[in-house]
């Protein structure tokens, strides 16, 4: 089926790409768990052979029945056509993965097909879909602008794999692709969302330069709003941006020291306003901004050569010393999902993701808080109405949660992210399972969970305790045993 020479070449290629994939994705989140296969078609003397993965450890991706089911016959694809247009295989390969339940929990990345020796070769990379989807992504941005930093990395990863396959035997592997460069180019690509322009590499370099400047000996801190230039015209100022002070003459971001000096003016709710190329003035974001508009983004400078790309208060990408990473959340999605699935086994994955986003948003405020997740949150809110503020049911989003967690007391929500009570004091009987080294939030939550667990009239709950020092505890009847 395949010559020993070709077999040796492809195995060497596979080993190299696996190292590249691990370097790329493990540096972002090891739980993405990248798996790499070489996917190949062999034909000789006009005869096309079966498709198999070049991997003795993993089970075969395709067998004869799979090939027959997808009608891979010479009447559809023949060897003459393949040599002229190898990408005719792409739709069939994508169809296989998209329609195979074995891969429903995977993000599948497929490179173009390239002819190496006598073998038509593609690289297939699988990522954990739950972990991939747990990171914040935009929904309404149009292609080809990436919707998330992880999406940008996937695009750049496949682009580099294609370059490697195309330049095979022309250059050495090591000189063709480097995962550090892949991540850097992904960050540059991600910055297209700032103003829907093609100047993202200039923006990236400008931001790095600005972040390297001190002012009167102080390291940089400050924020810039970026939005499309059409939103900053005088006759159509973006309805969610209030321009407090407008500069007589706009100046370029290339004027690094001007920008650095003006960043000293910015505070929690004051920003420099930019159309990507120029700084227009100083302003703030109105509370009526709709997250789904996805046309206001913030660059937040946090320290020397360190800055974040945010959609409002949600971090999408962090850059430190020219190295781009995913935001490091104080609680991992996989840990949260594991705990909540113990209590609510039938809860849909989308609802778990929405709850996780609410929890992450709650960690962004300065004070600590408590969030109680329960399927009977409404009845609990009614029972505790004299110890908190009963509210009309409202579905929470990250913007709302930041405001309502600013007061003391717990927030009671159901598994649909609907809030029923805020500022609630939790009750509960004295317990031996508390921790005197921890604060009142933690110990009152333990008492509440233990009391609920012993009462057959109440359903189980998960209590998320966020301390002022950003420590997070997930408290359930299982965790306090």
From TrEMBL:
Record-annotated DAC domain positions: 337-481
SUPFAM superfamilies: YojJ-like (SSF143597)
InterPro entries (UniProt xref): DACNH, DNA_integrity_DisA_N_sf, DNA_integrity_scan_DisA_N
Protein name per UniProt: DAC domain-containing protein
Top-level taxonomy: Bacteria, Bacillati, Bacillota, Clostridia, Helicovermis
